[in-house]
Amino acid sequence: MSSPPVDSPVVSSVPLIELRNVTCGYGDRVILENVNLTVPRGKVVALMGTSGGGKTTVLRLIGRLLAPISGQVLFDGVDLATLDTDGLYAARRRMGMLFQFGALFTDLSVFDNVAYPLREHTSLDDSMIRDLVLMKLNAVGLRGARDLLPSQVSGGMARRVALARAIALDPELIMYDEPFAGLDPISMSVAATLIRDLNHALGVTSIVVSHDVDETFLIADQVVFLANGRIIAQGTPDDMRRSEDPLVQQFVGGQPDGPVRFHYPAVPLAEDFRMGGAAR
Amino acid sequence: MNWLRPAVVGLAVRSKLAGIGEATRLFFQLIALAGATFGRLRLVVDQMFFIGNRSLSIISVSGLFVGFVLALQGYYTLQRYGSAEAVGLLVALSLVRELGPVVTALLFAGRAGTSLTAEIGLMKAGEQLVAMEMMAVDPVKRVLAPRFWGGIVAMPLLAAVFSAVGILGGWLVAVVMIGIDAGSFWSQMQGGVDVWADVGNGIVKSVVFGFTVTFIALLQGFGCKPTPEGVAQATTRTVVMASLSVLALDFVLTAMMFSI
């Protein structure tokens, strides 16, 4: 089967990513239900929401690591479901993904991790690869860490190395899965600045999955809130701050109780502690 | 009797069939990737080093002790019939035809097989394989195939080392320790071991065992749950399934070779 030409020149009027009526799940469990989402080119779009709300699933759908039960996922106007393996790999070469914990190859040095996609997909000579890798590492501030192993760098540094690897092939789309999780305030600020700067400098489109309201609102052009498998709100960060949706208010305000309960559903407390009745 | 319900039986059969289908697909994928894999010979050589070279010590030491024991047991039996000089032939035939390939494969499953399963399983748990997919790199082609072919090449070489060291061990016990004539020891071995019928059979066996053990190790690692428990269970399954498969296949191959 031949693939549609995903390597064709970019048509700027077509959104880079579009989800049309997408329903998706694992087994019998539905994670996303009838989701429609458009990601414009050159923007930073943040996916926010409660844990298990389907944010990472959206990233996996865009990378075709997961197939929807129904609906279409379009990359540059092409339905990913219509692509064969070669076509899909051609599309993926135009994407970069930063995994939550970096997913660095533990047996390779920082340098070799960043060089990996270049060695796999190009026939550049060693000196050219060296220069490109050092440029990418310089962009994330880790040119001096080139000879270290992943086990010798901190969590924040590992994510920056992974970011350098993700931009090695100059992708049009970069997806960030929880780039701020578990970082100290300095690393978090560095990561946020990097995402914003890379977006401007490289002219890429970015999708950021995050829980961190302050940092994400600083860098996002558009915020999409997902809850219970549906988009419940979307707009600019200011729109979200003004939103009257109780779940968005709870999330943005960091309130412990609201539509999302602090306590997992359970039998009444009195029953569990055998107060005035039979207990299980 | 919940397990007798048609729905439960049906689900179990379906999941087993799906597992067999996935394993078959992976096997043919690895076979089909032979050309591409040997096209990047460096990757295969690296894996031969990791899989083969690092198993050398355990293979050599085991071969030596197996050779010692074979010579002692052989001498004990043969001297009753006045044929103690044939102990060299007995040691060589036992090692080349049977114990070399089989014991090497069992040790290989324990040493290299578990290492392969754990490595692939941990790469999966650390999202390294998914990261490769997202970099448009096929993990089957880049990670599994070089290990598969590296293991297949390494196994007969390790079996040859095992047999050679075992024969040396037999010589130490029979000639140096017991005092059997060295000329008889070597000449009976030279006269009684046929290159095609005996050494050839051993090579065929070790290649088949190489396919089996390496494939089971990779399949278990690639299909495991990406959790610490999942990797641990997959590693155990590798040893159990590979060992039983080697012993069962050894019987089948031996029966076929005798009929020839």
What does this structure look like?
The complex is a heterodimer of chains A (280) and B (260). Chain A has helices spanning 55-62, 85-92, 110-121, 126-139, 155-166, 185-202, 213-219, 237-242, 246-253, 269-272, and strands at 17-26, 29-39, 44-49, 70-75, 78-79, 95-98, 173-177, 205-209, 222-227, 230-235. With 280 residues, chain A is α/β, with parallel strands linked by helices. Chain A has a six-stranded mixed beta sheet with strand order 6-7-8-3-9-10, sandwiched between helices. A four-stranded antiparallel beta sheet of chain A has the order 2-1-4-5. In chain A, a hairpin with a 2-residue loop joins strand 9 (222-227) and strand 10. Chain B has 260 residues and is mainly α. Chain B is built from ten helices and no strands. Chain B has helices spanning 6-32, 34-39, 41-52, 56-78, 87-125, 128-134, 139-178, 182-192, 195-223, 228-259. The chains are: A alpha/beta (280), B mainly alpha (260). The interface between A and B is medium-sized, with 24 and 12 residues.
Blueprint of the fold:
The complex is a heterodimer of chains A (280) and B (260).
Chain A: E1 17-26, E2 29-39, E3 44-49, H1 55-62, E4 70-75, E5 78-79, H2 85-92, E6 95-98, H3 110-121, H4 126-139, H5 155-166, E7 173-177, H6 185-202, E8 205-209, H7 213-219, E9 222-227, E10 230-235, H8 237-242, H9 246-253, H10 269-272
Parallel strand pairs in A: 3-8, 3-9, 6-7, 7-8
Antiparallel strand pairs in A: 1-2, 1-4, 4-5, 9-10
Helix pairs in contact in A: 3-4, 3-5, 4-5, 6-7
Chain B: H1 6-32, H2 34-39, H3 41-52, H4 56-78, H5 87-125, H6 128-134, H7 139-178, H8 182-192, H9 195-223, H10 228-259
